[in-house]
Design goal:
mainly alpha; about 0% strand; Arc Repressor Mutant, subunit A; about 150 residues; 3 domains
Amino acid sequence: MALDRAACRKLALDLLARREHSRLELQRKLGKRAFSRELIDETLDELEQSGALSERRFAESFVSARAAKGQGPVRIRSDLARRGVDVKHLDELLHDDEFDWCAIAREARAKRFGGGAPTGYAERVRQARFLQYRGFDMSQIDAALDIGDNSD
């Protein structure tokens, strides 16, 4: 039993050394190694108490990485929810001043379609669908698509 406890803790720490994980991700990965549910929960509780496992730190890291890849807050929120992160703290994190979602949407659009504003309705719709898939809301999409229209 002590060997199982040590092995479970070592594997969890090895996983956390590579990157931050949510509790649910670690539960799934440790569960695949045939550790008991009780042992996994005890180990993860200990890691949370020691600070080695932190949902907040995982969420911050995840949001920063996904924003850097040009993904929007809607998609990021959905991906974090699938990873078991409590959504009540996400609003604060996603509305942090560090992230200018309109600028991120403009950059994602420009990287995919070039710097100029879309010409024609069909092109505008196509680019809007792309940004929506990337996880931006309509106000952010409108800001990204109207990049050249504010020159009056």
